[in-house]
Amino acid sequence: MTEKQRKLRKCLLAKIHLDNFYIGASQNGAWQEFLLNNFGVESSAELSIKELISLLEIMHGSKSAAEKPDFCGRRVVNNKLGTQKQIKKVFALKNKIFENDMNFINFIYKHTGKILWRLDMLQNMDKKELTKLIVILEKIRMWKKSKEL
Q: Which DSSP string corresponds to 6-47?
């Protein structure tokens, strides 16, 4: 690693550790789980420069440009991410079933084991998890609908 790369990496790590997302996640003890779910590592110090940039993009809610694993073979972003159609369907069902976002976040944690800090983090879930949520939410919606009749 060259000196410029070393400086860039240090700057990226500093930027990550000063971000409000990191502060909130680390205070609640979920930072390591977040890294494990998205990158397969327990510490941001184990990430390459490309992965650190992707991490910042994920933390700020934008899509990651990296699709392939880096040269170390770690997964940067799961290439089996859910589709926008699935995400819209989950949000539509959420609005019909749940009165507030916290109940919905607890529901997701109960059924997938993933902690969402913001609702837009649904974009980081894979197709299987979103399909599972859609099926369960549809069953709840149908049950509530039959209960009203």
A: HHHHHHHHHHHHHSHHHHHHHHTT-HHHHHHHHHS-S-GGGS
Distance between CA 30 and CA 106 in Å, rounded?
A: 15
- pTM reported for the whole predicted model: 0.50
Cβ proximity of 37 and 74 under 8 Å? no
DSSP string, 63-130: PPS--S--TT---SS-TTBPPHHHHHHHHHHHHHH-SSHHHHHHHHHHHH----SSGGGGGGSBHHHH
Answer yes or no: are the C-beta atoms of 124 and 38 closer than 8 Å.
yes
What gap in Å lies between CA 113 and CA 133, rounded to an integer? 12
Q: Over the stretch 1-52, which tens digit does the pLDDT of each residue have?
A: 789 989 999 999 999 999 988 988 888 888 888 888 778 888 888 888 888 8
Q: One-letter amino acid identity for 70?
A: D
